[in-house]
Specification:
The complex is a heterodimer of chains A (about 200) and B (about 290). Chain A has four helices and 13 strands. By secondary structure, chain A is of the alpha+beta class. Chain A folds into two domains: about 1-60, Gyrase A, domain 2; about 75-200, Cyclophilin-like (Cyclophilin). The longest helix of chain B is centred in the first third of the chain and has 11 residues, at about 35-45. In chain B, strands 12-19-16-17-14-13-20 form a seven-stranded mixed barrel. Chain B has a six-stranded antiparallel beta sheet with strand order 7-6-9-4-1-11, with no helix packed on it. The relative contact order of chain B is 0.19. Classes of the chains: A alpha+beta (about 200), B mainly beta (about 290). Chain A: One of its GO terms (molecular function) is hydrolase activity.
Chain lengths: ~200, ~290
């Protein structure tokens, strides 16, 4: 673990794995004076209110924390209904050497965690993807991926909160009537936040 | 009579801005908010508003509004002509409008962004607690267009005419402090490189980032071909893409980035960047 200064009141914590990021984040959730606590794939940004040096406060809060242990926090649970009719279902099945039914069974049967967000408001990178579904991005990204599309890329799965260009392999889409991933007029605006537990269920 | 302002003209770009929606970076939501926050806060104080009320941020003036009822407006930022029904009124001081009056903000003499506050504040719907337009994420209202009607809230305090203040004069060259880190070790002698460099503000700059043209920053040999895994980025971050030309992240910046950040411009130095016209000379002054 390394602590890197990030502005006057920020520290970027560099960690060895996604699991360590999750453990460090959980340990800092209750640190007084946290303005921003932003996980990424291998780093965690901590921005604090002005005061004692941020690096000192973060180092003390992480002192003695076992970063190899899964965080013991109460996670919110979110279930997303999915229609598995995505344009890349056959591609993913072929690449994995399994049937499309098996792809659906694997994807909807796994337990996921929101590791971090990015790319667009409300876009969560979910970890926990079964090994056969861990596949590269498309060679040529689509210029427009419809809102609600459910895709996989590398070790992650996720749902596009709004139409955008994108290169993830698409397995399906959120069912009609499912809660929007991001609605700026709703409280909370984002359906998914770091640490949330997520499952996909086959709709219809 | 409704308490509202009708937009008649916007100039190159006029946006509703308040102090933004900080604290949502973990949801992928940029902070947004007025780039020259002290100027918006001043306009609000002079108008009798809370500093956090929403006003209008305009680039290069050209904003023209018609009052739907009597109200008070204040224009701040760099010195700019303010006209009411074609007659000079003045910036940095409360200006009373009657129903039907038209107020126009001209181009600032120096600098870039003017701020207009109106008594009661602009009360368009808020997104995640803020009325700011985020040009990256599309949160908040669309950029203003002629015909828009902007509702005003109820004034809670009288305007404060007594402390009318002289406008700042944005310089044509800036020395910008930079706190080294988090990825200064990716660069060869980062402090010396920053101190020796000379840049100008690119016309490609916007609310997402201030792009600098000039000295290319070079990476240390050990990091020459390294790829950075995307990591969180703060406002003021001086990101150095593969071109070596730095970009200073402003309020509408993406919450994560995949290029190394050599240092961070402190928050109290960002207002000056908001007023830096294309062509402004920039030196980066490493501190700490």
């Amino acid at each position: 673990m390394r602590l890197l200064r990030c502005g006057a009141d920020g520290v970027l914590v560099e960690l060895g794995s996604q699991a360590e990021v999750a453990a460090a984040r959980a340990a800092l959730l209750t640190l007084p004076g946290v303005v921003d606590l932003v996980p990424a794939a291998r780093t965690l940004l901590v921005v604090l209110t002005p005061g004692a040096p941020a690096a000192t406060r973060v180092r003390e809060a992480l002192d003695g924390v076992d970063l190899t242990a899964a965080p013991a926090v109460d996670a919110r649970s979110v279930v997303l209904p999915v229609v598995y009719d995505g344009p890349d279902l056959d591609l993913v099945a072929d690449a994995a050497g399994i049937s499309t039914d098996e792809v659906v069974r694997l994807h909807s049967g796994a337990a996921y965690t929101v590791a971090f967000t990015g790319f667009a408001p409300g876009f969560g990178y979910l970890t926990g993807l079964p090994e056969p579904l861990r596949q590269p991005r498309l060679d040529t990204p689509r210029t427009r991926v419809p809102e609600g599309s459910v895709g996989v890329a590398g070790e992650f799965t996720g749902v596009y909160p709004r139409p955008s260009p994108g290169g993830w392999r698409l397995l399906g889409r959120l069912a009609d009537g499912a809660d929007a991933l991001f609605d700026p007029t709703r409280t909370p605006a984002a359906l998914l936040a770091p640490g949330d537990a997520v499952r996909f269920e086959v709709a219809g | 009579m409704t308490r509202a302002l009708t937009v008649l003209a916007t100039g190159p770009l006029s946006l509703v801005q308040d102090l933004g929606r900080p604290g949502n970076a973990h949801l992928g939501v940029p902070p947004s908010g007025a780039l020259d926050a002290p100027s918006l806060a001043l306009a609000n104080r002079l108008a009798g508003n809370d500093e956090s009320a929403a006003g209008i941020e305009s680039v290069f003036g050209g904003l023209r509004l018609r009052a739907g009822s009597s109200c008070t407006v204040v224009v701040t930022g760099p010195s700019a002509p303010v006209l009411v029904n074609g007659r000079a009124a003045g910036s940095h001081t409360p200006v009373h409008l009657r129903a039907g009056d038209e107020v126009e903000v001209g181009s600032p003499l120096a600098g870039l962004r003017t701020y207009l506050a109106a008594s009661g504040g602009i009360e368009v719907p808020a997104h995640l607690g803020s009325r700011s337009t985020d040009v990256l994420s599309g949160l908040g209202p669309d950029p203003l267009a002629p015909g828009d009607v902007l509702p005003l809230g109820t004034p809670t305090r009288p305007p404060r005419g007594a402390d009318a203040v002289p406008p700042p004069s944005p310089p044509d060259s800036l020395a910008v402090p930079v706190l080294l880190g988090p990825r200064d070790d990716w660069f060869d002698g980062p402090a010396a490189q920053l101190a020796a460099g000379a840049w100008t503000v690119s016309p490609e700059s916007n609310r997402v980032g201030l792009r600098l043209v000039g000295t290319r920053l070079t990476r240390a040999a050990a990091f020459a071909d390294r790829e950075l895994t995307s990591e969180p980025v703060v406002t003021g971050a001086v990101q150095v893409p593969a071109s070596g030309r730095p970009v200073v992240f402003l309020a509408d910046h993406p919450t994560t980035g995949g290029y190394p950040v050599v240092g961070v411009v402190p928050g109290d130095a960002l207002a000056a960047l908001a007023q830096a016209r294309p062509g402004t000379r920039v030196r980066l002054r490493p501190v700490g």
